[in-house]
C-alpha cells in the first residue's frame, strides 16, 4: 500500500548562484491519497501539473518538502539516502517513457541487471528468472537482441520485464505510451493490465494519454499541484 499524507514539494530556482534565495515553485500542494495493493491507478493531468513529481517522490527519486509517504507502512520521508536506495531496489519497479535500457546489453542482460543489484540470487536463478519474465511479456526468442535491434514496443516490454522481475510491491510508469504509436501503446497497456491481474502488483502511472486513463481502474486528477478529483 502507498499512503500519501499532506505532501508538499517546493522547488527553488536561483537565477544567480550568488543569490541567497531563489524563486520558489510549488509543484505539489498539500496532497493526500491512499493507493491499495493491486490497484491499477493513474495520476492524470496536463504537463506541469505535478504528476511526474508525485511519481518521483513515491519512487524515492526526489525529496519531500513536507508531509509523509508510506510504502508498505515504511515512512520514506524520514529515510536516509541509503535506506531509500534499498527501498528502490527491493520494493519499486520503474517503467520510463524513453525505456532507459542499456544499449550495449541484450534484453536478457538488461533484465538480469535488476536482479544482480539485489545480490540475493545465484547466476543460474537470475538467468532463469529473466528468461521466464521475458517470455511472459511476449519476447520469447528475442532475449539475445540488443535494444537497437528491437522496436519501440518491444523495448518497452523489456522495460516492463525489468521492472517486474524483482517482484516489487509497486511499479511506477511515467508516461509509458508517450513514445509509442496508438496500436503499440494499446498493446503495452493491455499487457500491463494482464500482469497486474496475474501478479497483483500495484501499477501507478503518470499520464495525460486518454487511452491509458480509459484502461485504469482509478484516476487521480492533478491540476496546479493539487488533487482535484
CATH architecture: 3-Layer(aba) Sandwich
Overall body shape: globular
Unreliable runs: none
Biggest pleated-sheet summary: 6 strands, mixed
Q: Kindly state the number of beta strands.
A: 10
What is the domain total for the residues? 1
Helix/strand/pairing category: alpha/beta
The name CATH uses for the topology is Rossmann fold
CATH superfamily: P-loop containing nucleotide triphosphate hydrolases
Gyration radius, rounded: 18 Å
Please report the number of helical segments.
Answer: 7
The level of helicity is: 25-40%
Q: First CA to last CA: what distance?
A: 20 Å
CATH class: Alpha Beta
Proportion of beta-strand residues: 25-35%
Averaged pLDDT, please? 94
Structural overview:
- With 229 residues, the chain is α/β, with parallel strands linked by helices.
- The protein has a single domain, classed as Rossmann fold (3-Layer(aba) Sandwich), CATH 3.40.50.
- The chain has 7 helices and 10 strands.
- Strands 6-7-8-3-9-10 form a 6-stranded mixed sheet. A 4-stranded antiparallel sheet has the order 2-1-4-5, with helices on one face.
- The longest helix is centred in the last third of the chain and has 18 residues, at 182-199.
